[in-house]
Amino acid sequence: MTKTYPKASRPSLNDVSVTMEKGEFVFFIGPSGSGKSTFIKLLLREVQPTKGKIMVNGRELGHMRSWRVPHFRRSIGCVFQDFRLLPNRTAYENVAFALEVIGKTQAVARRVVPEVLELVGLGGKEHRYPHELSGGEQQRVAVARAFVNRPLILLADEPTGNLDPDTSIEIMRLLDRINRTGTTVVMVTHDSNIVNQMRRRVVEIEAGKIVRDQPRGVYG
Ligand SMILES: Nc1ncnc2c1ncn2[C@@H]1O[C@H](COP(=O)(O)OP(=O)(O)OP(=O)(O)O)[C@@H](O)[C@H]1O
User: Fold this and answer.
1) I need a surface site. Which of 39, 118, 151, 165 has the fewest CB within 10 A?
2) Distance from the CA of 160 to the center of ligand 1, in angstroms?
3) Rounded to whole angstroms, what are the CA distances from 14 to 40, 50, 61, 79, 185?
4) What is the pTM of this model?
């Protein structure tokens, strides 16, 4: 597909084609402005391609009615560089909120939230507010929130961008564990150490074109 934003002089993604299988772990790398965020926005149907199509889980996003989009997005968990936690809610409440908005009862939350907080290594810190947690711990809460609905796909946009190298590796261990449960992980990153250590598929974008797609790749 091709994506040209209104008013832009050239496409942000230019005639690209990529297939990701269920359960894969894929890094998207490339210089600033190369089109990585646009790719993520297309996958979430925040923007639509100018030409071509995008299929997610057997559905063509261009044919999806807009009222179906919120439901579709439940199948995708998102993690960002800046955590995006609700500051006046505890770790537990931040994760429970993701269940609340899709209509799950508090009884479900009481069962599921402690499980997922335990999974991300935050057992015992459920009642801390974001400002009472380290950056790495806040990102764990964000991962728990993204994963609590067991999404098919986890999109991570520079999830280690604000973390030191050791904490980054811990977050990657967590994403790796989640991937091993069968969740497809798509991660945008500039972190060469992480890419080189993980040795997973690497898709490199430059000026809107895919210039490399390599299994078990390195940052290069
Ligand atoms: N809403 C928009 N309207 C016009 N142009 C846009 C819009 N959003 C992004 N662009 C342009 O599309 C290109 C790709 O941007 P994109 O944000 O996808 O890059 P990126 O690879 O994610 O960069 P970074 O690593 O800095 O986040 C850039 O040239 C950018 O200026």
Assistant:
1) 165
2) 20
3) 15, 10, 18, 26, 23
4) 0.95
